[in-house]
Amino acid sequence: MAQFKEFIDTSKNKESALDAFEKSKAIKVNLMDLDKVHPNGLNPFEMSNIEELADNIKQFGLMQNVDAFTSDPDSDEVLLLSGHRRLQALQLLVERGDQYTYNGMDITGKIPVAKQKYIVDGSMRMLAMIAANNHRDMTNDEKNRIIEKTEETLQSLEKRKKWKQESGRRAHTIASLTGIAEHYVKTYFAGKNKAAALIDANEAENDQDKAAKDQRSEEIHEQIKQYKKIMSCLKKTQEQLNGIDQAFLNDLEKDEAKEMNELLIQISKLTATARGNLLGKY
């Protein structure tokens, strides 16, 4: 695992991810007690069909060792890197009282483990776990989830300047780490980008609707202000007209009387027009 940084850095390492990982784990496999091997809480893979796998191992034997981390080469306990389903299947066989073999040898109660040096950086540990499982079959939903987890982890490394993505090679890097076909990774991101574009378009449409509603609300507000202003003016005019007495009118000069009469005629016409427009409202 000391070569793992070079393993993910495709700009430096021209080998495939699988080849590099296989070289990094070319170490001795040890038989360990099942209770000394612990599942990793960060395991991003599905844990399904355990009983089916247990039955297969009982019939044909365990075909492959598991990989595990250890911070101490002499430690008698390890944390799984790959093989979570196999561990559970072997535990189930022991619970059922069944025996199982590895390379033709009865190892019931034990599990073959290839110990890897512990990786301090959490993001690097996650990539190591993903790469260690790149041989497994996955449903499309699981593939999509692992692609997202790998992309998220690579971005975390890049932000911390512990890794740099080679331009135009994102799908290739993820495919190498996950074992998922590169064309599937490209199709997944294309669909994701299309979905994001549709969301942006819907948000833009919603923004336009909101702008139209805001404009209508502003227009209504202005209408209310205008209504209140006109009503106030009409009430004041009414009060003024009610306050005029005959003596005041008799004392007006001819020009003043003419000017007032013309204004009252205009007010009368405007009032008649407004009243006509209001007749259909009530």
Topology, number of strands: 7
Structural category: alpha/beta
Order of helices and strands: HHEEHEEHEEEHHHHHH
CATH class of the domain at 4-137: Alpha Beta
Mean pLDDT: 81
Over all CA atoms, what is the radius of gyration? Answer: 41 Å
Distance between the termini: 86 Å
CATH architecture of the domain at 4-137: Alpha-Beta Complex
The name of the CATH topology of the domain at 4-137 is Conserved hypothetical protein from pyrococcus furiosus pfu- 392566-001, ParB domain
| Biggest beta sheet attributes | 5 strands, mixed
Beta-sheet strand percentage? 5-15%
**Gross morphology:** rod-shaped
Number of helices: 10
So, the CATH homologous superfamily of the domain at 4-137? Conserved hypothetical protein from pyrococcus furiosus pfu- 392566-001, ParB domain
Helix content: 55-70%
Low-confidence stretches: 1-18
Order of strands, widest sheet:
1-7-3-4-2
